[in-house]
Design a protein that fits this description.
Layout lengths: L2 H26 L1 E6 L4 H11 L3 E6 L5 H12 L3 E6 L11 H6 L3 E4 L9 E5 L3 E4 L6 H5 L3 E6 L2 H16 L2 E2 L10
Parallel strand pairs: 2-3, 3-4
Antiparallel strand pairs: 1-7, 2-5, 4-8, 5-6, 6-7
Helix pairs in contact: 2-3
């Protein structure tokens, strides 16, 4: 094998490694979980437990007692929390909106004519949680769902911009008689 052939072979070999390096780099920036019973709820609880500054959540359904309790713990640690929910969560039987409002967590509701079907959270502007997974016991134990935990700065920026748009157009949550379980 002459030097030119060896150089070309080495270049081809090195170029073939690029996709593997890109994949390995992105793999460090993403965690993928599935339900039922795949650890989605616990992963969310863990991420909330690591929060130090802020948590912004846009969630269609939030009925998980464990997640709600972890959010209260984060609030008690001084973490700023904003939760944006679909308007049906204001009075839904198992919604944790009343529980969270009673504990001084800022909650706003979507006021549009269609569903606010987003499911994402941004933690400390460093972690993005998204996927089909609603934050409910049924999603965790019964449904076929997916959850992604990402640390890509560009994606987090886009989701943050979307959250701000939703937030500024939401209606402030207030305690009302009836509806919502503790």
């Amino acid at each position: 094998m002459n030097n030119k052939t060896l150089t070309v072979a080495c270049a081809i070999f090195l170029l073939s490694l690029i996709p593997l390096l890109v994949f390995a780099d992105n793999a460090d920036n993403a965690k993928v979980l599935f339900s039922p019973n795949g650890g989605c709820q616990q992963a969310i609880v863990n991420e909330i437990g690591r929060a130090t500054k802020s948590i912004d959540i846009a969630m269609y359904y939030l009925t998980s007692r464990e997640i709600a309790q972890e959010l209260v713990k984060a609030k008690e640690r001084g973490v700023t929390i904003r939760i944006f929910l679909d308007q049906n969560q204001e009075n839904a039987s198992y919604s944790k909106s009343r529980y969270l409002i009673k504990r001084s967590i800022e909650v706003r509701f979507y006021i549009g004519k269609v569903l606010m079907h987003n499911k994402f959270a941004i933690i400390d502007n460093k972690v993005l949680i998204t996927g089909s997974f609603n934050w409910t016991p049924t999603a965790d134990k019964e449904n076929q769902e997916n959850l992604l935990i990402l640390t890509d700065k560009d994606l987090i920026k886009k989701y943050s911009e979307r959250f701000e748009l939703l937030w500024k157009n939401g209606r402030k949550g207030e305690l009302k008689e009836g509806g919502g379980e503790e």
